[in-house]
Amino acid sequence: MAGKVGGRLGRAPLRDNPFAEQTDLREGPFAGNDLNTALLSARPSTFMFTMSSDAMRGSGILNGDILICRRDLLPREGDIIIAEWRGEFWVRQWVTRPTPRLIASDGVSPDILLDDLNAAGCFGVVSGVVRRLKCRPGNFTARRPPPRH
Length: 149
Description:
CATH class of the largest domain: Mainly Beta
Largest sheet: 7 strands, antiparallel
CATH superfamily of the largest domain: Umud Fragment, subunit A
Mean pLDDT: 77
Order of helices and strands: EEEEHEEEEEEE
CATH architecture of the largest domain: Ribbon
Number of helices: 1
Radius of gyration: 21 Å
Shape: globular
Helix content: under 10%
CATH topology of the largest domain: Umud Fragment, subunit A
Distance between the termini: 41 Å
Low-confidence stretches: 1-12
């Protein structure tokens, strides 16, 4: 099923975009669903947090992203989780081998070694990311790339 944009079905002109005259919109596997259904499948145990660092940049999670966290899932090796450690919350990758630790993916932040598992807890597993784009009418000017010779 095609999406409706600007009063037209399927293909909509992009009047302000010099790079393309039309785009083809399709709903795909989420046809008929809204974001609540698609992203918040276990509502009573689903929470949203705002990421406040770039520690998980290598995993595609940026400062300011909204993280969807499910408390009903048990963490598995390699999952990105929201952990509570020493009274603070940390978004990190959960690794148990060779020793339990939380790993950042920015290449800068040190691993958090969990030598005392009783002092750490898993608040939930990150199941999705929502990112707001900065392209709004009035603050974005598209420029045609220079011709190649």
